[in-house]
Amino acid sequence: MSFEEDDRVILHDEHSDHDGEVGTVTQKMETMFGDANYVVSFEEGQEQGVPEDNLEPAEEDDESDEDD
After folding, report:
1. Which uninterrupted H or E stretch holds 40?
2. 6 with 19: CB under 8 angstroms?
3. Which partner from 9, 12, 32, 58 sits 20 to 30 angstroms from 22, CA to CA?
């Protein structure tokens, strides 16, 4: 699945401080092999060069757990 800028995604990378967090795709870059890498921004920073396999779409309910 391909992602576009402003898509909400969940990062899956056990070596990242942001593993399991919901973030926003801020940039999509294509490698010379035609694969996509992404820059994903989180509340506490960002991850660069994230491969598509490490991302999954975030559902609208994943954004926050605020009580009204």
Report:
1. strand 36-42
2. no
3. 32
